[in-house]
Each structure stands twice: as structure tokens, then as C-alpha cells.
Malate dehydrogenase (Flavobacterium flavipallidum), 311 residues
Amino acid sequence: MKVTIVGAGNVGATCADVISYRGIASEVVLLDIKEGFAEGKALDIMQCATDTGFNTRVIGVTNDYSKTANSDVVVVTSGIPRKPGMTREELIGINAGIVKSVVENILKYSPETIIVMVSNPMDTMTYLALKSTGLPKNRIIGMGGILDSSRFRTYLSLALDKPANDISGMVVGGHGDTTMIPLTRLAAYNGIPVTQFLTEDVLQKVAADTMVGGATLTGLLGTSAWYAPGASVAFLVDSILNDQKRMIACSVYVEGEYGQNDICIGVPCIIGKNGVEEIIDIKLDDKEKALFAKSADAVRAMNEALKSVLT
Ligand SMILES: NC(=O)C1=CN([C@@H]2O[C@H](COP(=O)(O)OP(=O)(O)OC[C@H]3O[C@@H](n4cnc5c(N)ncnc54)[C@H](O)[C@@H]3O)[C@@H](O)[C@H]2O)C=CC1
Ligand SMILES: O=C([O-])CC(=O)C(=O)O
């Protein structure tokens, strides 16, 4: 199985690294516009093979899309990350043009591929990729909810002082500091609702910390995060390539689900070899429904902003 990752920067290279050492794909192509950069990252990752014991072939190329031909999955991480104090939405001006040209080039060589969108603002870039290519909606998947859910589970694990892997929880809605919705009511510690262990105040703090999880790391690091984002992309790619049919919160095109239409937004999906195989329309309570509608309005407004950026 072949995966191409466009953008060999922090997230792209980390994702290539995790895909390789977990043996998720037999071939990974890293592509970047910076001369020699992807080649260097690929060689460095390949030189881990004997110590960590993997056989994935990793190659790096500078803007040579012919080497990406017949990729089963293409991950798009090309574009700029935010700096401290910025929102993801402020990246739209530069990243929209990059994403549009990248997906056009990709489809010339891999017309049947499934695209995983990472570049921010991710919900908007997912919508842009869908609309500009006309691909079927099952083949364009935005990565955000899985990362937000990992952060949610981490903050819950810290509050409970219990292992994160014993905790389930999901974040839906937009992948933005104010648009994501950690579903605290449904989070559980080995099947037991966390509401039995944590006070409402603590749960509200966990939700607030989750929502600004990316901004907190950007403030600490000076650029946005990459270890957890790279691992989240690899998890998603694994579910596609190995047809695992995991339920993962992803940004996908909705047509009536959650009362929304014509936007890409984070909802629970079954992810398998066909990409998005099903959207799980879970029952939200009235408060969650109102938050989802507000989130959807904000996501829709960004899609409107695309028009001025691309003309
Ligand atoms: N959806 C999510 O959950 C997350 C999204 N991100 C987003 O992912 C993107 C990448 O972040 P980082 O890897 O930290 O940035 P980075 O700056 O480390 O890497 C981006 C790479 O893209 C390359 N690039 C730029 N234009 C290109 C083009 N036209 N073709 C090929 N390569 C090109 C750059 O040369 C650079 O190497 C950002 O937009 C960031 O906001 C980051 C973390 C999580
Ligand atoms: O915070 C950012 O800008 C990058 C991102 O989407 C994340 O780490 O969640």
C-alpha cells in the first residue's frame, strides 16, 4: 500500500515516521517544495529501519508528483502553521491557494486516491478540496476530531489520574478554538460516565483546555504541534488502508446529518478502505445541538470567505 504525504514539515514528517515504524504502509512518498528537504527527511526516517525494525520504503521528492503515482492515500500537510496569538482561520489566505494546487497535482497521478486533509483551517480546506475537485464525498477526509479527541482524553486522564487508554471521549464540530465541542456528557472511564467522578467545574475546565489545546501548544512551542497530529493522521490512514472501520471523528461533507448541509465538519464516521463509509448520527441533547448549530454557522462563514480568497 502506498501513501503520499505532501509537506515534509513537522506534521508531514512525523506522520511518515509513525506510518513507517508501525508498518502501516509498504511505501511512503514525502513531497515538499523546499529543494532537498523531503529527500533529507525520508533518508533520516529510513535510517531508523534497522533500529526500530520496519520495512517500509520511504522516499522524498522535491515537487515531483510523478513519484506519487497510484497512491492509495494522500495526506495534505502543505501550508503554513500558525504562530502564537493567531487563530487557525487566519491561515486561509495562504493555505487555500497551496491546497488547491496540491490536490490538482495529486489527482493527475492518483485519480482514485483518498485524500486526508490536515492543512488549516482544516474544515475549510477539506471543503475547498471537495468543491474544487468534484471528488465523491467519501474520498475527502479532514483530520482534526481525532486529534481533539486525543487531547480531550489526555485532559480527562490527568483530571481522573487514570490511564488515557481507559478513557473514551469524542470531540465533534469544527476544528477551531471556539468551534469544537468536547462531548463531556458521553465521555467514560471504562464504560462508567466520567460525570460520576468529576465535578461539573472540573469537566468544564477539561472541555475549555481541550478547545484551546492547539493554541496552548502553539504558545509553548512557537509553532503548532506535530507529535500528536502526526500520530492522529497515522491512526486515520491505518483505518483506511487496513479497512479497520474504526469510528473516528472526522471532518466530512454532511447532507442532512446533524441538521446540516453543504459544509465539512467534525462528526463520528466509520473509516475503512472506501474512506468515509458511514456517518454516525448520534443523539445530541438540546445544549449540544445548539453548540453544533453555532459551530456549523462559523464553519459555513469560513467557506464563504474562501470565495474572496480564491478570486
Ligand atoms: N488538522 C490538524 O489537526 C492540524 C493541522 N496542522 C496544519 O498542518 C499544516 C502543516 O503544519 P506543520 O507541518 O507544522 O508546518 P511546517 O511549516 O513544519 O511544514 C509545512 C511544509 O509544507 C511545505 N509546503 C508549503 N507549500 C507547499 C507546496 N505548495 N507543496 C508542497 N509542500 C509545500 C513547506 O515547505 C513545509 O515543509 C499547517 O497548516 C498547520 O496549521 C497542524 C497540526 C494539526
Ligand atoms: O493548533 C494548530 O494551529 C494546529 C492544529 O490544528 C492543532 O494542533 O490542533
